[in-house]
Design brief:
Blueprint: H1 16-32, E1 47-48, E2 59-64, E3 70-74, H2 79-92, H3 99-106, E4 112-113, H4 120-124, H5 128-131, H6 149-159, E5 166-171, H7 177-189, E6 196-197, E7 200-201, H8 209-222
Parallel strand pairs: 1-7, 2-5, 5-6
Antiparallel strand pairs: 2-3, 3-4
């Protein structure tokens, strides 16, 4: 007697639960992700062949715009260092900053100093929303008799004492050399002999010695 054949049925998998889990995870990552805030000061950096990335912590950033104006900022993770720097300048220069004015530099993301000591109080007195639109004269650094970057680097050096301070210089490709020279002089005055220049990375030009060296290194690694 032959065995009765059972009819074949197509396999049906309910994906409703899987879709729910996928959308929940997607919603979680979107809500939990902290996006990088836009740059408060935009400059067009020169291009260079470079594989090393700039550090993001313990950073003192000097920015030079296309007009040669010099600005100073500290990484947002170093709140205590930012506070110490501003307190030191406020005391040594007798500026008389209020707590609210100090907070405008310490607590606002991407905040930077872009004014001489004589205008610092009125500069930080602005509403945080309006501060980004204020025309900034920059920190005096070109005149050797009035290079205020010397005092800022001294304050930064004291604030980062015991830590490795990463000094970055980010200059616009159209900026003039005297501004950079003033920054370098201020660094030397504080015995700060090492700093990194921020550039826009580009691929190694084909046919150059560096390109050929990398090709040979990759070939040996494969073998």
């Amino acid at each position: 007697m032959g065995r009765a054949k059972l009819p074949r049925k197509s396999t049906n998998i309910d994906m409703t639960a899987m879709c729910d889990v996928a959308f929940l995870l997607l919603s979680f990552f979107i809500l939990a992700t902290k996006f990088k805030p836009p740059e408060a000061l935009s400059v067009v950096t020169p291009s260079s062949v470079q594989t090393k990335t700039a550090p993001e912590k313990d950073v003192v950033l000097v920015t030079i715009d296309k007009d040669g104006k010099v600005y100073l900022s500290v990484s947002d993770a170093n709140v205590s260092e930012k506070k110490q720097m501003l307190e030191a300048i406020n005391t040594s220069k007798n500026i008389g900053l209020s707590d609210a004015e100090k907070a405008n530099f310490v607590n606002i993301p991407n905040a930077y100093i872009g004014a001489p000591f004589s205008q610092l109080k009125s500069y930080l007195d602005k509403n945080p929303a309006d501060l980004a639109h204020v025309v900034k004269p920059g920190i005096p650094a070109v005149d050797s008799t009035n290079n205020e970057m010397i005092d800022w680097f001294k304050a930064a050096q004291d604030a980062f004492q015991g830590k490795k301070m990463n000094i970055l210089v980010k200059g616009d490709d159209a900026s003039k050399y005297p501004s950079l020279q003033g920054v370098i002089i201020a660094l030397k005055k504080n015995d700060l002999m090492k700093f990194q220049v921020v550039t826009s990375p580009v691929p190694v030009p084909i046919g150059t010695d560096l390109y050929n060296f990398q090709q040979q290194s990759n070939t040996k690694a494969v073998e």
